[in-house]
Amino acid sequence: MESLAIVHGEAADISKMMLDLGRRARASARTLALAPPEQKNAALIAAAEFLRGRKAELIEANAQDMAAARAKNLAPAMLDRLLLDDKRIESMAQSLVDIAALPDPVGRVLETFERPNGLRIDRVATPLGVIGVIFESRPNVTADAGALCLKAGNAAILRAGSESFHSSRLIHACLVEGLKAAGLPEDCIVLVPTRDRAAVGEMLAGLGGNVDVIVPRGGKSLVERVQTEARVPVFAHLEGIVHLYVDAEADLAKAEKILLNSKLRRTGICGATETLLVDRAGADRLLAPLVKMLLDAGCEVRGDVATQAIDARVKPASEQDWSTEYLDAIISAKLVDGVQGAIDHIETHGSHHTDGIVTENRAKAEKFQREVDSAIVIHNASTQFADGGEFGFGAEIGIATGRMHARGPVGVAQLTSFKYVVRGDGQTRA
Amino acid sequence: MESLAIVHGEAADISKMMLDLGRRARASARTLALAPPEQKNAALIAAAEFLRGRKAELIEANAQDMAAARAKNLAPAMLDRLLLDDKRIESMAQSLVDIAALPDPVGRVLETFERPNGLRIDRVATPLGVIGVIFESRPNVTADAGALCLKAGNAAILRAGSESFHSSRLIHACLVEGLKAAGLPEDCIVLVPTRDRAAVGEMLAGLGGNVDVIVPRGGKSLVERVQTEARVPVFAHLEGIVHLYVDAEADLAKAEKILLNSKLRRTGICGATETLLVDRAGADRLLAPLVKMLLDAGCEVRGDVATQAIDARVKPASEQDWSTEYLDAIISAKLVDGVQGAIDHIETHGSHHTDGIVTENRAKAEKFQREVDSAIVIHNASTQFADGGEFGFGAEIGIATGRMHARGPVGVAQLTSFKYVVRGDGQTRA
């Protein structure tokens, strides 16, 4: 299996190898674009079976990655993300089966219109082409990202994090077995066979026109490198500096329930709230119970002067706190002047990801949802609903914070483009 | 009027000036994004009145451009594109009024879905942000491009061709007067106030994050420069190497009518057919009448051996002809092996713009329309329908040949992004 060889070499070799990878993916993309849904689904289901059947090998390969990671003194949280066990392998396999069960996004008629001259025009979903996915340590992303691209008829070039090298290679081998079993070209999903970071640079440069879009999934430094270097379109996945604004006309019980879930259900996901904004006009009624609830639940609160006055456990917030994605049981909190003050704060400090408002006043909710320029704007519900699964998209490859093509949860439908199919009966243009 | 000053200077000055232009456009974009439809329309209608009222000045400014162009010995076709007269100024003004009359693309609910937990999710159209438009000599593009961006709630940074410098400045001044009359920030539409090509480089580099997308409108060399240098997303507008395939099961009379219109209605537009493909199985019946019709209509035909055998006037086609956009009364022609042969030829030589099939066999039409990977695939109608107006989009800023975000005619709706508006009643995530 040539694609699994570990390459160590000079920059020129890597450039040549990556170009070849790009060409192979491109050559497979056309076949895949025209593949019937049943064939793509058969590949996914077969790949799931290979994952299940090679569980012992997977755990062994993962043990190699884990040993190397321990030797490098990786943080416990990182080690946990890297780990594969029986349950995680089963869940990875099941997720391929779930993706197979999604409606096929290719060929959907998105819009139909008829012109006065009798021309009928359908806007029909098509694959995008070749998608480059660059991700970090979690090995299951190899399976998820490959499967989502495949489902949408796109060839995928996957660049796994170097920590998960051996695990990802074997997961990829299972995907390739699935492709072969279904009679699809094995280069529909290629894995970059080197840990050398130069390979990432080659992907960002576009592999000679053989990558149509790059999806980075990882921390701030990866996303920043991608945004600086990419010469091809990127589905930007910036951090989620998520705000929850509690308005003077909020129902307190509802606000408590929503805030607790938004901040603490899981702290490490991008839809977790990082900043609490409370309407100054409702501060007397709202601020103390909300802040004490968070503190009592074990959340560190970094507040402005008013918030500090609530409880001795509140720490002072620095300017930096208003632009920080903690991904931890920490929240920044401050008073703002009504919905306009909340909007101004969010537009200054936010990351255009997800922001929420709690209020019983519909007009204020509408103003907030209209004026906050974020991918997802939520009224009276937890910000943790920022998720493709929760939106009903099935799985997601990430949450896009840019405005081009995809925005918000990127599921299989967002991994497609479209074409116009025009049907006439001899019409000519005047 | 600072924005109209002609700047001659060092690269560092241009960089600084362009960054300032970008910042001003960005600062206006938020106000514009939230502007009600009536205000945007009022600006467009007022601008149309200013264009009409300053007709004499416009003709004078244009005379300066024309004199400079003549001194540079520009080709007659270029001079014609540059010329403004009473009729063209009126048509430019009317096009602003027509754009004002289009439905507002911002705030449209594109999709609505309700989740089992009762969350209601609307996908709502929003502006993209700041659009950079780089175009060549036709001065009316200044008005059209500025108006289309404005209608979709986007700030625009316009870089006009250097030949139309004085004309574009005055047209831009009228747009700015319109913005002011409607109470919108005048930096909603800014014009690059220098002919220096370094300014284009600055735009392609993104003006410090202050350009969200670049729309190039011009010839091959501009588009190539944009594609090589751009660090921001581009709505690619490649050439239209448009094919018309006439199948063995075509109705000859229909094929003649469609071919004549596809090639000769106007030869200089991107939807004009450049290559005729005829099904080998129908050659005896179809090739001679189609080729003779074109020759008799004054069209040069460059053909393969079979086509050359039809008529002494047919010239031999070189390999280069299959990849040439003539934009003239010239066509290349060859036999192919059925619909599959046509698809293979188009996928090898085409530019993914617009391609057509003439056949009475519905299954063959469907295969062609499914497998040809072009923005527009047309059955039994002229390829010259590849046009935003003909699609019912109103005006268009161009035809996108890329697959990201916009594809095919780019009208005001394609100049928008979207956000998800989620409405709940206290829902939290499990």
From TrEMBL, chains A, B:
Keywords: Amino-acid biosynthesis, Cytoplasm, NADP, Oxidoreductase, Proline biosynthesis. Its EC number is 1.2.1.41. This is Gamma-glutamyl phosphate reductase. HAMAP family: ProA. GO terms for biological process: L-proline biosynthetic process. The keyword DNA repair does not apply. Belongs to the gamma-glutamyl phosphate reductase family. InterPro entries: Ald_DH/histidinol_DH, Ald_DH_C, Ald_DH_N, Aldehyde_DH_dom, G-glutamylP_reductase_CS, Glu-5-SA_DH, GPR_dom. GO terms for cellular component: cytoplasm. It holds the Pfam family Aldedh. Residues 23-293 form the Aldehyde dehydrogenase domain.
